[in-house]
Amino acid sequence: MNLFSYPGSILVVKIGTPAIRTLNMIRYYKVNEMKNFLLRILPVMALIMVLYSSSCFAQTGSAARKYGKGTITRSGFNKKAPAAKQTKVKEPKAVIKAKKQQEKNERKLKKENDKAISAAKSRHFSIQSADVQERMKQNEKDNVLRDKSRKKNIRKASRPAARRYKK
């Protein structure tokens, strides 16, 4: 029975016997077999790498030609692709005319609304007594002054922040 024919066999041998020499030879041949295996596999692996890298270069070459000179990085090509032109869709004349008419009607309504508001305001003011009219005028002046001072304070408070974010 050959003890060296299958892995996992255990052999107890005295030192200095011919069996040790046999074991050393087997070890040597196994190492050489591994080296031979690597020598056979390495050229195949190199060939595969060369073939794959050439296909990668073929793909990037077209991008380089299309977008000008640039480098390929991990994130992709470093120059942006040209944006697709957006085609303008022209609306029919009837639609344009209807929109213009609608805007015209809205302006007219707004004008009438402002006129009605000012008429109501003046009527409301005219039916008050003289003392109340004086108070209403003074209140309006106070409101204008209060708004001015509030805007001034806001501008003053935001000035340092505006300096920080100035371009």
Strand order of the largest sheet: 1-2
Helix content: over 70%
How many strands, what sense, and barrel or not for the largest sheet?
Answer: 2 strands, antiparallel
Structural class: mainly alpha
Q: What radius of gyration results from the CA coordinates?
A: 46 Å
Quaternary structure classification: single chain
Strand content: under 5%
Q: What's the SSE pattern? A: HEEHH
- The low-pLDDT segments are 1-6
**Count of DSSP-assigned helices:** 3
Tally of strands = 2
Overview of this structure, please?
The protein is mainly alpha-helical. It is built from 3 helices and 2 strands, in the order H-E-E-H-H. It has a two-stranded antiparallel ribbon with strand order 1-2. A hairpin with a 2-residue loop joins strand 1 and strand 2 (76-77). 0% of the residues are buried. Mean pLDDT is 76; it is low at 1-6.
What secondary-structure arrangement, pairings included, does this model have?
Layout: H1 18-67, E1 72-73, E2 76-77, H2 93-126, H3 130-164
What is the gist of this entry?
It contains three helices and two strands. The protein is mainly alpha-helical and 167 residues long.
Provide keyphrases for this structure.
3 helices; two-stranded antiparallel sheet; 167 residues; 2% strand; 2 strands; mainly alpha
